[in-house]
């Protein structure tokens, strides 16, 4: 069983149904998850200075709690949480000074056995495309979907190691296993503007609109992401576009739900994806 780390953003935006859809999909596909008994914000941003240790504490607590509760790894749905948790985990296993200082503060030891997983990684490695195909009731034939990867679970590739940072294909492979046609387009690994949306809206507007217009020009009718911040920015920043320039933006769970929507176990969710 995997430990589950919701994170602040996913839990705060329940109306998006990202958490509910993700957990229901995993349940259907036979992946057991259980929320950690205690967790707190991961910090949202990985500290880049080598002598910062306090920002590591909350993530280490989650990693250690996963060990204590004998989970087979730690699952998160949020790309920012994945980015921070995995990099902190790497640092605790590779930086002896950081490990010593964090453990001294916590007055506990972290063995370093926890593995951090993102939702789409679990679909690839724990479920597999063959099993996903077997569950398809309504193939997404005729749909042209563009995957937006962004930056948080791509870079630095040497630390995250989830996808090829220059040419990621994982979300496309998931969509293709559901019968959809995937659209290749420029800027799919560029940043959406991230937290600039709160203070320098023009920066996020330019970054996100460039992504949307490129996907639209390439023929996509839908743009999917696995990051709450990316989804927010893409939706918010297309408000100034002309109607014929806009595109439907969803989490990747949405087309999965549509493809599996004929299954009785997903009956209560099928309307959410329409």
Automatic annotation (TrEMBL):
UniProt GO MF annotations: oxidoreductase activity
Cited InterPro entries: Cys_rich_dom, HdrB/HdrD_reductase
Transmembrane segments: none
Name under which the protein is recorded: Disulfide reductase
All copies of domain Cysteine-rich, residue ranges: 3-86, 146-234
Oxidoreductase as UniProt keyword: yes
Superkingdom classification of source: Bacteria
């Amino acid at each position: 069983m995997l430990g589950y780390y919701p994170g602040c953003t996913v839990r705060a935006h329940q109306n998006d149904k990202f958490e509910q859809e993700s957990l229901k999909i995993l349940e259907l596909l036979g992946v057991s998850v259980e929320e950690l008994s205690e967790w707190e914000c991961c910090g949202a941003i990985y500290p880049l200075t080598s002598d910062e240790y306090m920002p590591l504490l909350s993530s280490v607590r989650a990693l250690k709690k996963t060990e204590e509760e004998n989970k087979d790894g730690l699952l998160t749905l949020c790309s920012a949480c994945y980015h921070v948790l995995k990099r902190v985990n790497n640092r605790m296993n590779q930086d002896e000074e950081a490990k010593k200082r964090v453990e001294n503060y916590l007055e506990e030891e972290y063995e370093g056995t926890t593995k951090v997983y993102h939702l789409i990684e679990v679909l690839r490695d724990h479920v597999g495309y063959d099993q996903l195909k077997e569950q398809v009731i309504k193939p997404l034939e005729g749909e042209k979907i563009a995957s937006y990867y962004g930056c948080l679970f791509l870079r630095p590739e040497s630390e995250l190691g989830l996808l090829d940072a220059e040419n990621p294909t994982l979300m496309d492979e998931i969509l293709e296993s559901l019968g959809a046609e995937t659209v290749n387009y420029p800027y799919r690994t560029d940043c959406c503007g991230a937290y600039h949306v709160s203070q320098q809206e023009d920066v996020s507007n330019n970054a996100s609109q460039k992504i949307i217009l490129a996907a639209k020009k390439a023929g996509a009718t839908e743009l999917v992401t696995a990051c709450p911040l990316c989804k927010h920015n893409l939706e918010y920043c297309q408000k100034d576009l002309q109607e014929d320039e806009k595109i439907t933006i969803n989490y990747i769970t949405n087309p999965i739900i549509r493809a599996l929507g004929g299954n009785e176990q997903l009956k209560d969710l099928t309307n959410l994806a329409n």
